[in-house]
Amino acid sequence: MNQTEQNIILIGMMGTGKTTIGQILAKELGFALVDLDAAIVAEQGMTIPEMFELRGEAYFRQAETAVLRKVLASDGGQVVATGGGAVLEPLNCEIMLSGGIVFALTADAETIIDRVRGDSNRPLLAGNAEERIRIIMDERKDAYRFAHYTVDTSRMGPEKIASQILMHYRV
Ligand code: SKM
């Protein structure tokens, strides 16, 4: 792992492609990929829906902060794909800003709805997923703005999005 390079941190709503883009970036740069949701699941030994149901969202959010802190305290040379709500805790935003270069991925509501359709691993979308996405997007419309760079992923393929990020990263 390359520990001298700045971390790349991806933030954004669910369905903006953080994991997919993270995989491409990590491969291209030879960096480790840390998917924060997956790291929380591994540490807690239960799925995210189970965590929300058995322990509640607040518990999940605490675990999210702890894992984020740990991941960014250690190495450089990582691509960190965060969960969609990781930006809700102001402390997390501070940890991210001082832990690497933060890229916000955005997409319009229709694109997000299309991408997350039928994904049962997202407890916040239980019920009417389309309606929930519009509500959450409205609630979070300013939450991703602290990023160093913002890339709209609605009308671009993953490779092109990754190359835009790399262009900013390499400046
Ligand atoms: O972190 C998970 C979890 O389902 C919560 C979430 C959110 O608040 O947008 C997004 C997912 O990545």
Describe this structure in words.
With 171 residues, the chain is an alpha/beta fold. It has a single domain, classed as P-loop containing nucleotide triphosphate hydrolases (Rossmann fold). The chain has helices at 18-29, 36-44, 48-54, 57-74, 90-99, 109-116, 129-139, 158-170; strands at 8-11, 32-35, 78-81, 101-106, 149-152. Strands 2-3-1-4-5 form a 5-stranded parallel beta sheet, sandwiched between helices. It is globular. The mean pLDDT is 95. Bound molecules: (3R,4S,5R)-3,4,5-trihydroxycyclohex-1-ENE-1-carboxylic acid. (3R,4S,5R)-3,4,5-trihydroxycyclohex-1-ENE-1-carboxylic acid (SKM) binds next to loops.
**Distinct small-molecule ligands in the complex:** (3R,4S,5R)-3,4,5-trihydroxycyclohex-1-ENE-1-carboxylic acid
- The number of E-state strands comes to 5
SSE arrangement, N to C: EHEHHHEHEHHEH
Using only C-alpha atoms, the radius of gyration works out to 15 Å
Question: What is the fold's blueprint, element by element?
Answer:
Elements: E1 8-11, H1 18-29, E2 32-35, H2 36-44, H3 48-54, H4 57-74, E3 78-81, H5 90-99, E4 101-106, H6 109-116, H7 129-139, E5 149-152, H8 158-170
Parallel strand pairs: 1-3, 1-4, 2-3, 4-5
Helix pairs in contact: 1-8, 2-4, 3-4, 4-5
The structure holds (3R,4S,5R)-3,4,5-trihydroxycyclohex-1-ENE-1-carboxylic acid.
